[in-house]
Fold this protein.
Amino acid sequence: MSPPERARVHELLREEYRAVARDPRTFTHHLTGRALAAALGYPPSWVASLPETVSVTFAGTGNPFFAGPLPPGWQVVDVGCGGGLDSLLAARQVGVAGGVIGVDLTPELLAIAEEARAALGLTQASFREGLAEALPLPSAWADAVIVNGLLNLVPERQRAVSEIVRVLRPGGWLLGGELVVTWAVPADVRADPAFWCT
């Protein structure tokens, strides 16, 4: 995929998730919000404790906390954090001795996450605009990286995975869930920027 095509994919993704931030009902690819979180096994009390603006915009594909909570004091990166559901839950788990940085390419979703962070008083969390293929973080910073429905949207997956490995400390945890296609996608379909937004 050429640089202009990659840029077009990123812009289409921003447009789609900007619409989700304005009205989550516009996202029709799969189940979203609290119903999705419940289906993925998130404890209902965890989700209910977050502002509704966060929970209704949730569109992950897995539960990064399925094996249990994160250790207190850990540093966590949530790549493709969206409205911040996983980031805010992680921030509660790592506590004030830890830290969580959520990264997303959609300013409108980051604004939802930041507003919720401030309302909840989670000073150990912060949010940054950025791409999975060029994470705005130092190397070996994170004890854990969350990716929840991100890599299926990234046109340069190998580069994104390299970035995740770069920011993760040796022995750190990779948590989350992804959609996996088990058949070959035709080249002309892969070259269509709109394909990456489905």
